[in-house]
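Record type: monomer structure entry
Structure origin: computed from sequence
Chain ID: A
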Amino acid sequence: MARLLDFAGKRKAFTYLGCALSGISQLLSFGPFVCIWFVARDLIEVAPNWQNATNIATYGWAAVALAAASIIVYFCALMCTHLAAFRTATNMRKATTEHLMRLPLGFFDTHATGELRRIIDGCAAQTETLLAHMLPDCAGSVVMVVGMLVMLFAFDWRLGVSCLVAVVISIACLMSMMSGKGMEFMKQYMGALTSMNKTGTEYVRGIPVVKVFQQTVYSFKAFHDSITEYAAMAQNYAVNFCRPPQVTQLTVLNGLVIFLVPTAILLAPGEGDFARFLTNFAFYAIFSAIIPTAMTKLMFMSEAAQMAGDAMSEVGKLLDTPALPVPATPRRTNGTDIAFDNVSFTYEGAAAPALDGVTFAAPAASTVALVGPSGSGKSTAASLVPRFWDVSAGSVRIGGTDVRDMDPADLMGQVAFVFQTNQLFAQSLADNVRAARPDATDDEVLAALSAAQCDDIVAKLPQGINTQLGTGGAYLSGGEVQRVALARAILKDAPIVVLDEATAFADPENEALIQRALAHLAAGRTVLMIAHRLSTVVGADNIVVLDGGHVAEQGTHAQLVAAGGLYARMWGDYEQAVSWKIASDATKTGSAAPGAAAAKGGDAR
């Protein structure tokens, strides 16, 4: 709770003030019951001469005034706690978002967006409910319980004890549901919600595939299993674990007369002042109605506290995730060359290293290609340059400076990225390109778009570069999105470019345009490219062939083909693939059937 309230900042005091006001409100709410006792006393004392009870109206107005005061004070309490809760939720979202910005970019490869969204937004919403409503209600409930105990013994302790039996049984039932097993159930509940968030996000993204193949949610096994697991867990918790204590609690709370009436019957014959005894009995019969309310508030409070505790645990795990280390005295680079010196890297939890003893260099303004079979470590090696991850051993240097000794902001300013899949925001085309350099003018944005071969995209959009993209606006094809991503990289004008085969999924027309844009982007820059299509690396200054996390060989295209190693075999497979033809069964000579298309662009596997 202390860590949660720290997020409230200066408004933490509002939380304490709100809880205090809620307690005062509960004390005021006892006033009408006391007034009822006075009314009952006066009426019984003068019965049947009711006209002699002259203070009834006074007690009635006092009860109304106390009830109104209780409501007003409670409203002020909620205003205070809401102010603190809103600030807490806002600061929590800011803190988690800002911390995410300081984490290594590789962190986002291992954590689903649905999971992070639940932590940033869902957990903050849960704590907001706790602070705004449940916490003041808890303070009021504590005061209510204490005041109730005082009231129970204020008039007739024997009748009070009979009412207290139900309270003791109710609290015992609540404690059983809040036991270690109950907390474990709550952790499973929150874990099931996280799982559904993760798999639900994946399912929504995969709906086009599901619909094309006429499948249902049952075919998306991960999502279906998470729903089934959540349903089974919730049913087990509600039916098998909570039902017995809840049934017992509700029975005793709503059947207080089973304790009060027998006690009154046993005590009545020995009472000397029967009128006072009858007055006390009437008071306890009416006052016992607030006992279920108090216990219900405590029950909901316990559930909210468990959920908020789990939410804070998830937020705490995220905030405790080590940020990307920033050197105390950052060093600047002395050039734009890249050097891998005996680099090794192992993913967390992996048994074998993804890279082991990798050494190669990319001189300034040169193009170096990384090729190799799937899983050979190409993407891992490229991701170490911008510090998506930090090396386990060895070093990655830019201009002679270890990237770990550079300020992360300076490092990001040195490197531009173009990947196979790129994200456009639901903003204008200009704002999407300007993400690379927010202070760029419209003319600079247009120049970058033109260099990225996007003139046709700008021409077809109704408001040009000011056209909204995404929901409620225009949509671009995959190849067009790739060209816009290239425009970003061109506008950034970074001296080092990391390419993850930007043409892998482009159609022939877009591929030609992307190749021209890449040529403009690479001019005069150090380029490290991950190549799947070998035709794109023939002109590279150096080709590094990775296999199983090791450098199998490196050299120019001609040198590697002449060496007859892994690259030569991959090149032979590639040449064979591009010569494949699609032919009908009737064609026996191996020539393509009329209208058949040549299978171009085989991937290097």
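Annotation 1: The chain has a mean pLDDT of 81.
Annotation 2: Residues 365 and 525 are 4 Å apart (CA to CA).
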